[in-house]
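Project standup — Tuesday

K.O.: blocked on the structure for the chain from last sprint. Re-posting the sequence here as requested.
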Amino acid sequence: MRATLLVMAKDLRQRVRDRSLFLLALVVPFGLAAVFSLVFRGIDAQAAPTLALADRDGGPVVTAFAEQALRPLERGGVIRLRPVADEREAREAVERGEADAAYVVPPGFATR
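H.V.: unblocked you, prediction finished:
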């Protein structure tokens, strides 16, 4: 073990002399941090997607899905929820750009 420590100390002294230690310890990490900050710039500033929800069933399953899954996400600012009457209105909302996606629950969904 003592021999290993001596080899490590010699290697460290050699790296300090040729300045590669500074390159590996400072320049490379800060360079990578700069590259990642450029790549991921603005990723947290993206707008929350709007989801249209057409509940044609009105059953407890869809109500629970909306209230226990979608509404907490909406309150957290992760999504925006837009209630619509039917599939046609949901499609139009997506086509007009008022919604990014839609959930359409058909009548009788809870009984299936």
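K.O.: great, moving the ticket to review. The mean pLDDT is 84. The radius of gyration is 28 Å.
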